[in-house]
Amino acid sequence: MDSTSSSRNRTALEPKRDLGRRRVAALLRAAALVFQERGFEAATMVEIAARAEANIGSLYRFFPNKEALADALMQHYTEVLQQGFEAIAAQARTLSPEALSDLLIDFLVARHAQTRALSALLDSRAESTLTRLQIRAQALAGVKAALVACAPHLGSTEADAESIAAVVLNNMKTMVGMTLKDAPTSAGAPDELRFMNRLYLAQRLGVAR
């Protein structure tokens, strides 16, 4: 194995003390900002260390390369999304389709600050194709679980539940783009999308409730 492959395969160091955990958290926040602003390829370890007001040696101590930094961020984002979807599924049993719709449509927007570099990493990293598919599958499963909790009859029609979840997930992603002005929008467009999603779920989940 050459030195480049060896470096890329090295993993992040797990801090054992509170001071180390706080330092790692600061480094990850800085990395997320730099990746979001400049993209994965353009970002440098020097720039990330400077943004964190940390010594470059401290950055390399915990993260041997940018890949290790990105992997740590992706793992964190996966956990944030999983916890959020589980919380919605737990509430969904007592919610109307319209109330569930509102929770779902704003889900990714509400968590943007916690997952700000997600799109940049997925879009920029050539090796992230599998990760992109895994996170999309995770999100689709999370939406589906919430829908079935709200409308148990969907559990007997897997294809319908998956199709509805896919539509809602795409609406959720569109809402992020509209909110961040990354997608064509106008002042009233997010409210229109929210209204459309309510009508859609009220019709699709309301059957047999």
From TrEMBL:
UniProt cross-references to SUPFAM superfamilies, sorted A to Z: Homeodomain-like
Keywords of the record, alphabetical order, are: DNA-binding
UniProt DNA-binding region: 44-63
Cited Pfam families: TetR_N
Coiled-coil positions are none
Query: Could you tell me which PROSITE patterns the record lists for this protein?
Result: HTH_TETR_1, HTH_TETR_2
Residue intervals of the HTH tetR-type domain: 21-81
Could you say which residues form the signal peptide? none
Q: What is this protein called?
A: TetR/AcrR family transcriptional regulator
Reading the lineage from the top rank, the first entry is Bacteria
InterPro entries in the record = DNA-bd_HTH_TetR-type_CS, Homeodomain-like_sf, HTH-type_TetR-like_transc_reg, HTH_TetR
